[in-house]
Amino acid sequence: MASSSSSSLHLLSFFFTIVLAFISVSSGTFKPPKPRVFIFPIKRDEKTHQFYTELDMGTTNRIDVVIDLGGQFSWLDCDQYNSSTYRHVRCWSPKCKATIGGDGASCIDCKEKPHRPGCTRNTCALSSYNPKTNMYKVGGVGEDTMRVSSTDGYVYLTDEDMRRFTFGCGVKGLLSGLAKPTKGILGLGRTPSSLSTQFSSAFKLVQNKFALCLPSPRQVYSGDIFVGGGPYYFVNYMGDASNLLIKTPLVINPVSYPRPLLNSKDFSSPEYFIDVKGIKVDGKPVISFNTSLLSIDNEGKGGTMISTMTYYTVLHSAIYKALVTEFVNEAAAKKMKRVGSVAPFGACFSSENIKNNMTGPAVPIIDLVVKGNNAPWRIYGANSMVKVNKNVLCLGFVDGGSTPITSIILGGHQLENNLLEFDLESSMVGFSSSLLLHYATCSQSRIF
Ligand SMILES: *[C@@H]1O[C@H](CO)[C@@H](O)[C@H](O)[C@H]1NC(C)=O
Ligand SMILES: *[C@@H]1O[C@H](CO)[C@@H](O)[C@H](O)[C@H]1NC(C)=O
Ligand SMILES: *[C@@H]1O[C@H](CO)[C@@H](O)[C@H](O)[C@H]1NC(C)=O
Question: Which residues form the signal peptide (predicted)?
């Protein structure tokens, strides 16, 4: 009896072994591809001209957050954050040190009961920062699961869990100036705790890089952030749009100002700067300003920054005046008719005799001459002009006064429908110039 039951057990286990072998063979065949690129849709708030994305956080929360290209950390309004998978990061912990840099000695202790996101004991602390109001507030650091779509660049693959996405706890008051639907900030800055750095270490991505493709107004579909890099595919563009990217070195500004930095060892700015060597309008150099404004001095002033928190490019007064003068000259050569200015713009034209073509209004082309290339960052009508009413188009750059910290802040309007790639390992910025030239737009990147 005993021997018969033991042999049937053997038989059973033999059977299971075969089934297991079969399962492992078939799962070998259908092994899911490794996630390569994570994508976050980009939406645009028409009222504030801010770009934002939706994060799928924890157990209950879908949260809209403003995309801050130079943001050191991500933060969420913890007063409105409720998730059972939220965990606080302990002070002095390795994670705390890695997140805030320095010795990780910054702590916050909340004794209120019950504990909730934003009020926990012995918690690693950092300053959540709002670049619109230049306000910041110290709060606890927390982590939670983030669900995000991953793709091989061409076809939809899968949703992945980023298990311990780290962010700061902001409070409701810190949200002022941010687009209505949003409850925090997604920081993409050049830091150890930015979105891209967190994803590349959690998923062992090949490279720590990300790309931005900002949608223009009135586009039905959104643009995208691609964390992990290319390839980039667009409807109507054959092949990988990585091929369109012109590379220029990322410039590191040694001083982070006005952004506050908690990091005690590295005071360099988390923002992305590039070396613009000069400006041309329809091929003619804009020369009537002191070009030392184009480089960053040892106090961190000057230079050219790329920003998603500024909408119309802001120029130092001297550069602004020189650009407007040259643009108006070239416009006159094109028989464009200048009309009264409409604030905040200084050069406006009747739209009557301006033709439209694939890259927008056919106006003089503005070139930013960048380091390391013969090819400039080319700004066509769709990115240079703003339609202020039915009959008037204005040059969409604004005067930043004669004492700005940064001489050129390249803003969202000038970046729309341009593919921009930020490679934190090779320390390079890639730009495509207008995708419209290739019959593509940022809203047509997701084909699934
Ligand atoms: C958080 O969510 C849980 C479960 O959904 C609910 O029971 C609790 O009341 C919520 N807490 C707050 C502060 O909203
Ligand atoms: C340009 O600006 C720099 C720094 O302010 C100054 O040292 C230099 O003399 C200026 N050059 C000219 C030609 O004005
Ligand atoms: C579109 O207009 C630009 C001027 O902004 C001009 O250089 C370009 O040749 C035009 N393209 C076509 C296809 O007409």
Answer: 1-21
Nearest CA to ligand 1 atom 11: 82
Q: What local confidence, expressed as pLDDT, does residue 34 receive?
A: 66
pLDDT > 80? residue 3: no
**Residue 207: predicted pLDDT:** 84
Fold of 36-206: Cathepsin D, subunit A; domain 1 (2.40.70)
Assign 8 a pLDDT band (cuts: 50, 70, 90): very low
Nearest-CA residue for atom 9 of ligand 3: 362
CB 226 within 8 A of CB 234: no
Whether the CA torsion 210, 211, 214, 219 is positive or negative: it is negative
Indicate which residue's Cα is closest to atom 11 of ligand 2.
Answer: 290
Ligand 3 atom at minimum distance from 381 CA:
5
Q: Beta-carbon neighbour count of residue 30 at 10 Å?
A: 6
CA 79 to ligand 1 centroid distance, Å? 12
Q: What are the tens digits of pLDDT across the range 274-294? A: 999 999 999 999 999 999 999
Closest CA to 76 of 107, 54, 103: 54
Q: Ligand 2: distance of its center to the CA of 292 in Å?
A: 7
Domain 241-438 has CATH 1.10.287.130: no
Q: Return the ligand number nearest the Cα of 364.
A: 3
